[in-house]
Amino acid sequence: MAGKGKSGGKHRKNERGAKKGPPGGIQPKYHARKDRVTVMMRRAKILKAAIEGRNVTKAAIETGLSPKSAADQASKILRDPITQRAFVMILAEKGLTDEFLAEKIRSLLDAKQTLYFQKDGVVTESREVEAIETQTRWIWIPT
């Protein structure tokens, strides 16, 4: 009924009298299923895509999430503690434990490179020096 007050009508109206809907005025075509099995499958597919280096937004869309919200939803799923525990378990199964990764980073922080010096196309000398570029790159990654 048009004569009802703000709280009496079924639909809210804006200042021009038009019905208010969802933000942007566009109703989604579908909503992603939220049952437990579907959520677990979605999490597994997005996590697998992340591990394989694929685009997690595309993986999220393939699991039934809206293309408009897929990036945010995939990010939220990857930050979820359950997903992060699963990720750590997968890394450990592949031998990528915290100790292994720390040792790998340590070796990169101590990286060396060999420089060769030549004269008339003949190598006359070689020196092992600090690989400053590699070391600098790895200093900032853990932080």
Layout of secondary structure:
Elements (H helix, E strand, L loop, with lengths): L35 H16 L4 H7 L7 H10 L1 H13 L4 H12 L2 E8 L2 E9 L1 H9 L3
Helix pairs in contact: 1-2, 2-3
Summarize the structure.
Helices cover 47% and strands 12% of the residues.
Structural summary, described in words:
The protein folds into two domains: 26-93, Arc Repressor Mutant, subunit A (Orthogonal Bundle); 98-140, no CATH class. The chain is 47% helix and 12% strand. The chain is built from six helices and two strands; from the N terminus they run αααααββα. A two-stranded antiparallel sheet has the order 1-2. Helix 1 (36-51) packs antiparallel against helix 2 (56-62) and helix 2 packs across helix 3.
For the record, the count of structural domains works out to 2
Mean pLDDT: 79
> Any idea of the CATH class of the largest domain?
Mainly Alpha
Major sheet strand order: 1-2
Q: What's the shape?
A: elongated
* Portion in helices: 40-55%
Assigned CATH architecture of the largest domain: Orthogonal Bundle
Number of helices in the DSSP assignment: 6
Classify the fold: give the CATH topology of the largest domain: Arc Repressor Mutant, subunit A
N-to-C series of helices and strands: HHHHHEEH
* Poorly predicted residue ranges: none
Q: Let me know the largest β-sheet.
A: 2 strands, antiparallel
Q: Hey, roughly how much beta strand do the residues contain?
A: 5-15%
Overall structural class, as computed from helix and strand content, comes to alpha+beta
